[in-house]
C-alpha cells in the first residue's frame, strides 16, 4: 500500500498470513483488483476492497476469514433484539416451520425478534416518492447492498450522486424496534440490537456505515454461526412450539432481498435488477459511458441470487430463493405485535430518521492531488501497459498488466517483476538470471522456488 493510500474503510474480510499459501486464487477473482502477492502471501489494498467476499469463496485453505462480533456480546444487554432477515428462515429444511426457527432463536437468549423486512412496505413507498422527486437523475441506484455502494465509491465515483439517500431495511427495522421497545418502557441503554448477516459487506455497513455517523445496530452475528446453533436446538427439541403473536409480512417484503425484490416494487418508470458483482461492474461501465438510456431505477446486488447467495449463508442459494418465493405471507411469528393506533406516528418518526448524507466518492484511481501530476502519471500508466505483454498471468504478483503498471507508477512495484520483461533483459544482458530468481523469490517466497523440492519432484515424476 502506497503512502498516499490512507485507509478509508473498515473491513470484515481479513487475511490469515500464517495460513495463506500464496496460491493467488483470491487475487485472480477480486473484482476491484484489491489483492496482490508479496513474499508468498496475499496482501489486501484496503482502499480497493469492497468486502464482496469473492476471495473468501475461492480460498482453498481457509486463510480468508470474516471478522465478526462474539456471540457473548448479546449478554451485555438486558433486552437482546435479533434482527432476522427472511433469507435466514430460507436456510432450513421445508419440514421446519418459520415459527419454530424463531422459537429456537429465543432459546439462545434473545428477548425480542424482529424480521428485517418488516419495514419494507413502508420503505417501498418512500423509494417511489424519492423517484418522483428526483426524476432528473437517471438511473437512481438502490443503497440496499453495501458492497455495491462501496464499489461505486471506489470504481465508479461519478455515479455516487445516483445512489438513493434512504436507509436500507435493516436500519429502518432497527429504528422501528428501538422506538417500539422504548415506548413499551424498556430503557434504551439496556437494549442491544443485533443483525444476523448473510455477508461481510453488511458487517461493514454496521461498523462503518456510509452516509451516517453511527449505525443504530449494536452488533452483527454471522448467519452461518447462528444457523448451526439454531439447527442444533431444532434437532434436540422436536416438539418446539411456534411462537405466538403475528408480525405479518407481504409476499413482496419476504422477497425484497432476492433478485428483483426491489425493482418489482418501483412504479416510477423503468427498473432493472442485476445481481453478481462482475455483472454489475459490466453494466455500470455502460452507464458511466452513457451507453444506457431510459432506466429510472437500478437494483444492484453483489451476490448471485442476491442475499440468498451471501457467503455466510449455509444453504444453497437457488433452493433458498425458491423457498422464500413460495413462503406464505405473514407466516413468521414474533413477540412484538404492531399497534395499528400508532402507525402514523411511527411512519412519521421513520421519515424523519431515514435519510442518508451524501455518499462521498473515494476513487481508487486518484494518482495525485495535483491535477497536472496526476495526468503525467496517467500517461505513464498507459505507456507501461502498452509495453507489457497483456497476458495477465499474475506471476508479477499483480492481477493484471494494467494493475502492475499502476503499481509501478505508485512506486509499489518494479517493471522487473514482469517475467517477460525479465527474459528480454536477460537476452540483452541487462539482467542476470540469478537476479530474476531473486525477484521471483521476493514475490512468491523461497519455498515456491526451492531448487531441491522442485528437483526431487521432477525426478519422482520422471
State the helix count: 18
What is the general shape?
globular
For the largest beta sheet, what order do the strands appear in spatially?
6-5-8-9
Extended strand count: 11
**Total domain modules:** 3
Report helical residue fraction.
25-40%
> Strand portion, in percent?
5-15%
Q: Please give the alpha-carbon distance between the first and last residues.
A: 43 Å
Average predicted local confidence, pLDDT: 89
The largest β sheet comes out as:
4 strands, parallel
Derived from helix and strand composition plus strand pairing, the structural class reads alpha/beta
Order of helices and strands: EHEEHEEHHEHEHHEHEHHEHEHHHHHHH
The value of Rg in angstroms is 25 Å
Low-confidence stretches: 333-341
Write the layout of secondary structure elements.
Blueprint: E1 13-15, H1 25-29, E2 35-38, E3 41-44, H2 54-58, E4 64-66, E5 79-84, H3 86-89, H4 98-107, E6 112-115, H5 120-133, E7 140-141, H6 146-155, H7 169-183, E8 191-197, H8 200-207, E9 219-222, H9 223-236, H10 251-254, E10 271-275, H11 277-288, E11 297-301, H12 317-325, H13 343-353, H14 371-387, H15 401-409, H16 419-427, H17 433-448, H18 451-461
Parallel strand pairs: 5-6, 5-8, 7-11, 8-9, 10-11
Antiparallel strand pairs: 1-4, 2-3
